[in-house]
From TrEMBL, chains A, B:
Residues 1-21 form the signal peptide. Keywords: Signal. This is MmgE/PrpD family protein. It comes from Aspergillus versicolor CBS 583.65. SUPFAM superfamilies: 2-methylcitrate dehydratase PrpD (SSF103378). Residues 5-246 form the MmgE/PrpD N-terminal domain. Residues 267-424 form the MmgE/PrpD C-terminal domain. Pfam families: MmgE_PrpD_C, MmgE_PrpD_N. Belongs to the PrpD family. GO terms for molecular function: lyase activity. It comes from the Eukaryota.
Length: 461, 461
């Protein structure tokens, strides 16, 4: 009954059922997603995808915005490209109990659909968003960590189902239709860990959004599937994981809100290295105060959870995307720049000789007793000075979340780089006030987006 | 090196490398696919998909044909809908060493792309088709049966990669681009066995075709992926199966041609019940000769391989699609009608009281020593007469293939029902002569397709 339970719960959900912490977190999640999407459009993958797929359509125009550009395209292309852009910087959000980045697949699908099926009110948009996020995260908990350990990218493998639930709710599917939509989405299992560090990682998110839209629209029009796509003997949960308790997890829908456990990344890279970065930035700041020169660093170390090396043991990253999965690159830029923003994860910085030199002095050891959000970092200088920091909870974790002010700063920094300060402020105002809108589909008209394509932003496309 | 090996082999493949048995089988595979697609358009799923997705595009027209209708759409929609139609009847082809139905994903992607990128010559089309089919089937062998036993629909899970290889070759990708295309396709694992008997089974095939096109076009435009998508630690082969030997299987590319092991279905249903159907039809014919009445059947039995009950132990099918996975329905219609064509797998026949009554008299036992293409069937009549048949190799198996004449008949029967006898003959002429065409993209203009939508063909959409 898991599929039916999810579908019936999602359809019954009303904006008035949402508690204040739920709606607050939903709004933050949505504007954090929008900031990532607008900022992420500056990187190659989103623009390449848009330019590649546009000629496949007979006449390429539509109602749906590509955030960060002024392109208007069809709903499926918009969902794909915004999904790619929102995840390319690895700067989005993370569910605390799993590595699911929940907003990307759901918001990318929903915004495009809200533009096509205007008017969709803010409360309806938020309610559908919450339904989709709960679906993704409950499914994530039901199969984590076994599913992730096999090699699946859990964000997109749960994301196509979350997007189908959200869009299905927005379109007003009936119960059986939504079960069919979940079934159609569930047979499209998108995303593997091997592609981390490449353009294909953010593709997972965009494709999950696209698949969710397609599944919901097909089901709305009478396309059939199995009614028990999640729990069937040869259905989603059994096929994608060696362990699952989908039925149990979905029984907590509406009583335990997964979205309240959403967290936001302070650094645009794999969240597993955030604790170490946090510590190394603190050491940078101490060194500056003490008049120590970064060039005089003899060695830098971190003691971290073993998963850090499993995911980011990359001594020689080749590109900015690759460097998002290199704990050594992260250490070098945190110590040199005293920050880790998108500017520290460009192809140029990856090739910078000072960064490469310091990267080679970073060493990392793993210890099971260190938690995933914890790090012990130390730096030794040529004069023998040793600075040490214990980060118990990484900045951005549930225990030490970004404040609303920090989230706003993060948004403005990303978005200003793409569309300028004034328009960034207008965009923040629009997305952070989404609950009050009567027509979310018009949100992109509240600010002007420059028609800069990725080719203008990147010398080598 | 598996991904690189596949990509470099596919790019180097020339029409002149293909032996006569390979090209002969390729042409048969293509026209058998086209017949299934044109005939299959009469069933609801293809038409529903077309009607559902058309309004998502700003201006719905294009260069690419929906076979069986006169609709022209964009390349991705055409690949999806033709893929659905070609598999909906479960009447297509099957690789003898795996349950892969190879033509659907590859031909559906290629024909749409050949129409968009006209002119593509017959030899180029066939060469790309063979490259895609070899990719699918080698990958299938490398993970079968473990991958299938988990619950994956091996046709589409290998199909998106096969389609990417075929389209990538057609578009002239370079080696790294084709490796990237394989990577992008490999992270989209489409199709689970739980959806057998529903509209979502043929959706798998269409979506695989669509994903292959998208992957190839993205890679052509510079979208990146991992270069070792198939063999990487967290890549396709390891993630989707508990056993794999992709590297070994791909080492036989060009020396062992999988396409020569392709077989064609004589009956539009799961191939695992073809041996039993073959036997029951023979009993029907004997009974007619002996003057025995089908209404006097006391019981009908079959002793078959255990996989038959694993896939088709469905005593009470509800729809025509569902009945394609019911050995009991198959027995009833084979005995009553003396044939098993699409006309025996309609929703109406499933609800026919004589069929239901005889279905309840069919019983099946499983025995490991009976091969997958073998069956011992028997029927007992009210007067005590017992007729027995041992089918050692089912009609349509490698050992007892359909003749060229039977394949032509199968094509004409399916296609005439949709576009009439005269146009069916023209369509057969076009597809069976595809090797001589200078522009395969114009093949659909060689015959006139009626603009009948599924709603006109089906009373209840």
């Amino acid at each position: 009954m898991a599929t039916k339970k999810l579908a019936s719960w999602a359809l019954a959900l009303q904006f008035s059922n949402l508690t204040q912490p739920v709606t607050d977190m939903a709004v933050k999640s949505i504007y954090n997603w929008a900031g990532c999407a607008i900022g992420g459009y500056a990187l190659p993958p989103a623009g390449i995808a848009l330019e590649a797929l546009s000629p496949l359509l007979p006449q390429h125009s539509g109602n749906c915005s590509i955030l960060g550009s002024d392109a208007l395209v069809d709903v499926q292309t918009a969902a794909l490209v915004n999904g790619i852009a929102s995840h390319v910087d690895d700067y989005d959000d993370t569910h605390a109990d799993t590595p699911v980045h929940p907003s990307g697949p759901v918001a990318s699908a929903l915004l495009a659909m809200a533009e096509l099926r205007s008017p969709v009110s803010g409360p309806d948009f938020i309610t559908a968003f919450v339904a989709g996020v709960e679906a993704e995260c409950k499914l994530g908990v039901a199969v984590y960590p076994e599913h992730y350990d096999i090699g699946w990218h859990i964000t997109s493998t749960t994301g196509s189902i979350g997007a189908a639930v959200a869009v299905g709710k927005l379109l007003g599917l009936d119960l059986e239709q939504l079960q069919h939509a979940i079934g159609i989405a569930s047979v499209q299992v998108i995303g593997m860990r091997d592609s981390f560090g490449t353009d294909t990682k953010p593709f997972h998110v965009g494709r999950a959004a696209q698949s969710g839209i397609q599944a919901a629209v097909l089901a709305q029009n009478g396309y059939g599937s199995m009614l028990e796509g999640l729990e069937g003997e040869y259905g989603w949960a059994h096929v994608v994981s060696t362990r699952q308790n989908v039925t149990k997890e979905l029984s907590t829908l509406g009583s335990i809100w997964e979205i309240t456990k959403n967290t936001f990344k302070p650094f645009p890279c794999d969240r597993i290295i955030h604790a170490a970065i946090d510590g190394w930035i603190q050491i940078h700041d101490q060194a500056v105060k003490k008049g120590l020169r970064i060039a005089d660093i003899k060695n830098a170390t971190a003691r971290v959870n073993p998963i850090v090396l499993s995911l980011t043991d990359n001594h020689d990253p080749k590109t900015g995307l690759d460097a998002k999965f290199s704990v050594y690159h992260a250490g070098a830029v945190a110590l040199i720049y005293g920050e880790a923003t998108p500017a520290q994860f460009t192809d140029e910085v990856v090739k910078d000789s000072a960064v490469i030199s310091l990267r080679d002095k970073v060493s990392v050891t793993a210890a099971k007793e260190v938690s995933e959000h914890e790090a012990f970092v130390a730096v030794e200088f040529a004069n023998g000075t040793k600075l040490e920091i214990h980060v118990e909870h990484a900045l951005g974790s549930v225990e030490k979340p970004l404040s609303a002010e920090q989230l706003k700063e993060k948004f403005l920094e990303q978005v200003s780089a793409q569309i300028g300060d004034k328009q960034a402020a207008a965009a923040f105002s629009a997305f952070s006030q989404i609950a009050n809108m009567t027509d979310v589909g018009k949100i992109a008209r509240k600010f002007k987006q420059h028609p800069r394509l990725y080719k203008e932003l990147n010398s080598s496309p």
